[in-house]
Design a protein that fits this description.
globular, 294 residues, single chain, Nuclear Transport Factor 2, Chain: A, disordered N terminus, alpha+beta, 7-stranded mixed beta sheet
Length: 294
């Protein structure tokens, strides 16, 4: 992993900043899971670049800049466009701004994703992560008046969105997705891990996020051993950011919230990828979670 392989100063900064980096990237991507993908990409780039740039006067700002650029790259790929245009506010008269707008801290990832990229970045950095205008200007390589312009426009748009009628429909899974997920959960809760292992594809990949990665059925199969001996958890079928997920719950607290979650990727009836967020529980802070309805 990028964090464990990095030298001391960088390793310490990564361990301290990773939850905040995720809060930023999740809001840039509109998804907690995709935000973690961007964080991992950014930290890998940081570890690879460290030997060429060290010492770094401001490791925090340097890591956020790498994460910001990684998020932009991911958004470009998602949109299949050659370039994302940065809004240019250089000629604006700097408005007077409230220090922090509480709308941004309450807004869902999908709501923030409706802002233009530059506004989304500025609003998240200021109103969610409490960066100063000057710090944001340095990170985004803009002038302070430009940042204030982005904040004003982004906050105004959030206020407009907040007045729109809400869509109260609960997310739902397609029947095939729900059937596969419920079969996995039932076998998991029954501790029938031989049956669970039988669901794995030969080329299955495991990402125990923030800890280790394994590939192939022979390497991944022992991962279930610790769950088999544990008695403090139970799991349920769920939906995270609109996609099927296994919600890991406290067995002693029937009404409590998920402790973390696991996502599965399928090819036909076989599992080809498992992402377990046991060691990255900070992702819950940004994830939008629902229990799967039958």
């Amino acid at each position: 992993m990028a964090g464990s392989a990095a030298p001391g100063v960088l390793s310490e900064a990564i361990a301290r900043l990773r939850p905040r980096l995720h809060r930023y990237c999740a809001r840039m991507m509109g998804s907690a899971v995709e935000g973690e993908d961007v964080v991992q990409d950014a930290l890998l780039k940081a570890a690879e670049a460290w030997s060429d740039v060290a010492p770094v006067d401001n490791p925090d700002g340097w890591l956020f800049r790498i994460a910001h650029n990684a998020a932009l790259d991911a958004l470009r790929r998602r949109a299949r466009r050659a370039e994302l245009e940065r809004e240019d506010e250089e000629d604006m008269v700097a408005p007077q701004l409230a220090s922090v707008d509480p709308l941004a801290t309450r807004a869902s990832l999908q709501t923030l994703a409706r802002l233009p990229v530059a506004q989304r970045s500025a609003v998240t950095l200021r109103d969610v992560l409490d960066f100063s205008v000057d710090e944001i200007a340095q990170l985004l390589e803009l002038s302070p008046p430009a940042v204030k312009g982005l904040l004003q426009r982004g906050r105004q748009r959030l206020a407009e969105i907040a007045q729109e009628p809400g869509d109260m429909r609960a997310p739902q899974l397609a029947p095939a997705e729900r059937r596969r997920l419920e079969a996995y959960v039932a076998r998991f809760n029954a501790h029938d891990f031989d049956a669970v292992r039988a669901m794995l594809a030969e080329d299955v990949r495991l990402d125990l996020v923030n800890r280790l990665q394994l590939r192939g059925r022979d390497e991944v199969a022992p991962y279930f051993g610790r769950y088999d001996t544990a008695t403090h958890w139970r799991c349920a079928s769920g939906i995270v950011d609109g996609k099927p997920a296994v919600l890991m719950l406290d067995a002693e607290d029937g009404e409590g919230p998920p402790l973390y979650f696991v996502t599965l990727e399928w090819r036909g009836e076989q599992i080809v990828a498992i992402r377990d967020f046991l060691f990255a529980r900070y992702v819950l802070e940004s994830a939008e979670i629902a229990v799967s309805a039958g």
